[in-house]
Write a structure and sequence with these properties.
about 375 residues
């Protein structure tokens, strides 16, 4: 299994509204397009970030004050009605407040981090599930459509600190630090949001577990940020106590692989690893095998790739290991039905994988 910091698919590129028409530092929903170009470097993580964080915070606060003054004076070209938004935020219904906070973040992400924090707080708050759901849906849409770039986010310490403009170039230095500070904030906020999804995936009500699963799948399908964690959350739901949740997790993983063929092997490896985990139940193994046996394998030359012979071999090895494991534990009448289905799914998987693996299998393996 790859570490969370590794990419498990190629970067995705999405087109967002240009920032050229937006307020200074607003980003117009595409803050990362206006951010200074910078690539992380090995020396980035070796000290330096701590002394720059306070400077970045001060610069951000100063820019926010200027932004609010310009907005109050009507000198910014923004599409929303500022007075209406202020009224809604003070006295509107929950749905209206969620909509208003969403608009604010879309209009000027760097200057409305507080609205993003408020949405996260609403999603985290216990009690009103409907309010939590609205907040989670708003956050999902913002992250997918406006906030997450087609690469992984970086903490401030991961930025190329050695390339920071000097104090003499105050404007460029301020701009770089403010964008880096926002990216650092955004990465931390996203991690907190995924913790909310992880909590909701354990909800006692299946409806809310299903909504959280769909949100996780949408995020994983759209963007590379925290993809290993999101994948693990979905794979774990193959063993949920509710059969409907298991079936939905199976379907979402199948749709993920169809949308991103390059992720097929790493998703299969994660599912395969779950099969042999000590805490894995027979039901979880059954749905995992159903997923593996449903993979659309390719021979060399299809779509210009080298084929899936290696993956097919890995699948066959897993099938035989599971066959032996199931055969040695088939001693409980209460689980005989599930184990019988597992055996059937294993045989189906072997039959589907063998034509793609036979060129790589030697006689002893067969």
């Amino acid at each position: 299994m790859r570490s969370p910091s590794q990419r498990i698919r190629p970067a995705m590129h999405r087109h967002s509204r240009s920032s050229s028409d937006a307020a200074p530092d607003a980003g117009g929903g595409a803050w990362f397009e206006a951010a200074p170009a910078a690539e992380p470097s090995p020396e980035s993580a070796v000290g330096g970030a701590g002394s720059l964080r306070a400077e970045a915070e001060a610069l951000t606060q100063s820019a926010l004050e200027v932004y609010e003054q310009q907005k109050s004076a009507g000198r910014l070209r923004i599409s929303s009605d500022s007075k209406w938004l202020d009224t809604v935020l003070r006295s509107g219904t929950t749905s209206d407040r969620v909509a208003a906070m969403t608009v604010l973040v879309q209009e000027a992400p760097l200057h409305n981090a507080a609205s993003l924090t408020s949405l996260l707080a609403l999603a985290t708050k216990k009690g009103n599930r409907d309010a939590r759901t609205m907040a989670c849906e708003a956050l999902r849409d913002l992250f997918v459509q406006n906030l997450l770039p087609g690469r992984q986010l970086r903490f401030l310490r991961e930025q190329p600190l050695s390339a920071l403009p000097p104090l003499a170039d105050a404007a460029a230095r301020s701009r770089a630090l403010r964008y880096w500070r926002f990216e650092d904030f955004l990465k931390g906020t996203y991690v907190e949001f995924l913790a909310v999804l992880e909590r909701d995936l354990q909800d006692s009500v299946a409806t809310f577990k299903l909504k959280a699963m769909h949100t996780a799948a949408d995020l994983l399908t759209a963007k590379p940020e925290q993809e290993q964690l999101l994948l693990s959350l979905l794979v774990n739901k193959l063993g949920d106590a509710d059969r409907k949740v298991c079936s939905r997790a199976l379907h979402l993983l199948q749709q993920l692989v169809l949308a991103h063929g390059a992720m097929k092997q790493v998703v299969a490896q994660n599912v395969k690893a779950s099969i042999f985990a000590n805490v894995c139940s027979d039901r979880s193994r059954y749905y995992a095998i159903l997923f593996l046996s449903s993979l659309q394998l390719q021979r060399p030359g299809q779509d210009g790739n080298g084929g899936d012979a290696e993956l097919a071999c890995e699948l066959i090895e897993a099938y035989f290991e599971l066959f032996q494991l199931t055969a040695t534990t088939a001693n409980s009448s209460s689980t005989m039905g599930v184990q019988s289905r597992i055996m059937s799914a294993v045989l189906t998987g072997v039959n589907r994988a063998f034509p793609f693996a036979k060129s790589r299998l030697d006689t002893t393996t067969v």
